[in-house]
Amino acid sequence: MSSAARKKSVLLATALLALAAPLAAGTTASAASVSTWDKVAQCEASGNWSINTGNGYYGGLQISMSTWRAFGGTDYASRPDLATKQQQILTGEKILAGQGQGAWPSCGPAAGLGADHADPYPSGPTYPSPSSLADGTLVKSPNGPSVKVMIKGAGVPVAGSDVTPDHYDLGRIVLIADSAFNGLPSAPPAGTVVHDQAGGADRYVIIDGAALLIGGSDWVSDGYNTRQDMGVPTAWLKDAAQRNLSNGRVVMDQSGTDPARYVMVNGTALHISAAEWTANGYDQRSLMGVPTSWLAASASQQLANGTVVKDASGKDATVYVMAGGKAVPLTYADFTGLGYDKRPLEAVPGAWLTTAAAKTAPADGTMLLAQGDATVWQVNAGKKRPMTADEFGPGKLSFNDVVSVPAALITALPTV
Questions:
Q1: pLDDT value of position 416
Q2: Which DSSP category does 226 fall into?
Q3: What pLDDT shows up at residue 2?
Q4: What angle do CA 50, 101, 72 make, to 5 degrees?
């Protein structure tokens, strides 16, 4: 592109920005075949589609940055020379439609740019299959701003806040078809070992889209050190580390040191007795190994207050609500009157449920409220004490942590 034409292109770029966006890439009234564009590139840049000499014009068609931006080239790459040949030609088609072959005053006419009206890509642009892309490749759809990074066949979302600390080069984005982009799984497959792309010593294993922390002692003993360790976006990993495994997921100690099997319910690992393993059909589910230390912590914590449970075998038809580790039986009137019929009913191992129901009182610190009673009670050493309003508020206890239970439970607890 000559100096005069380049000045003209810069002046016209802003005025034509609004016009350029809706123009089709292959407008036949001013289109040109790939062979003609090859002639233009040969004239402008000796056929080098990746050329960047530092003269302010880039790629095979020697397009300036202002023109590249004005005609939508940055949808493909940050600079023309970083875009593919096809992407440069598609942008060149828009420039040709807006400015004519005069945008390349010497090379355009010499290549026959104004006389060739063939669509360079009559079937539309072709894009690579995500399965052909290496791990760590940044991808996006041609029609959206979102960016993902390829990790083991998944497209993990990249937040804007990740770009700089995670050292992602947006100039290396690869375009893939809309359907392929939208169809990418958002989490790497189960068993993938990951770390924060921005750095840090922590390692995690992905299961059900959740990131489980691998303890230092687990790294070797559980064999995670033999797996490929992948960097993932910081924001995504932070969110994944807060997720629970899917309810009903059956897990075991990855090291095999603990032979027991567990089922996950609301983030807690519940022990499955040997008799229930086959009787309740747990043996028919996919069994996943999890980090030893993570499993120990999950199995030791109480099932979340307010979780509504029943015996997975169906032998006990009673419905229970969890309060401080105790399974509190609900009558039908309690079940509906306390609003628990609006919550999911989780199936749990019968032996575990029997043990939880046999506890004499909820754990210390559990806050209880009976229907129709304005007083909130707190459990302390198997007894209850009335709480005052000034114990709740910002920086204090929250009413959201109070468990609604049948009045009979509160009545049965001695008052402090």
A1: 86
A2: G
A3: 42
A4: 55
Q: What digits encode the pLDDT tens for the residues 37-82? A: 999 999 999 999 999 999 999 999 999 999 999 999 999 999 999 9
What burial letters (b/e) apply to 88-114, b meaning 16+ CB within 10 Å? bbbbbbbbbbbbebbbbbebbeebebb
pLDDT computed for residue 318 by the predictor: 96
Question: Which among 302, 159, 313, 183 has a CA at the least distance from the CA of 234?
Answer: 159
DSSP 21: T
Q: What CA dihedral angle connects 255, 257, 261 and 266, to 10 degrees?
A: -70
Give 203-231 pLDDT, tens digit per residue.
999 999 999 999 999 999 999 999 999 99
Query: Is residue 64 one of the residues assigned to a domain?
Result: yes
Task: Please give the pLDDT value at position 30.
Answer: 63
Q: How far is 270 from 252, CA to CA, in rounded Å?
A: 11
Per-residue model confidence (pLDDT) at position 17: 32
What range defines the domain where residue 41 resides?
A: 3-111
Q: What is the pTM of this model?
A: 0.69
CA distance 11 to 197: 42
* Cβ proximity of 180 and 137 under 8 Å: no
Burial of 263 (0-12, 13-18, 19+ CB in 10 A): buried
Whole-angstrom distance, CA of residue 88 vs CA of residue 60: 8
Assign residue 178 a region (left: φ > 0; alpha: ψ between -120 and 50; beta: otherwise).
alpha
CATH classification of the domain holding 25: 1.10.530.10
Q: Which residues contact 354 (CB under 8 A, 6 or more apart)?
A: none
**Dist CA 173 CA 82 (whole Å):** 9
Residue 147 included in any domain = yes
On whether the CB atoms of residues 231 and 222 are closer than 8 A, the answer is no
Q: 139 and 50 share a domain?
A: no
Domain for residue 310, yes or no? no
Give the end of a domain, one of 240, 264, 289: 240
Between CA 170 and CA 269 the distance in angstroms is: 41
Indicate whether 119 belongs to any domain. Answer: no
Residues in the chain predicted with pLDDT less than 70, given as ranges, are 1-30, 124
Same domain? For 147 and 91 the reply is no
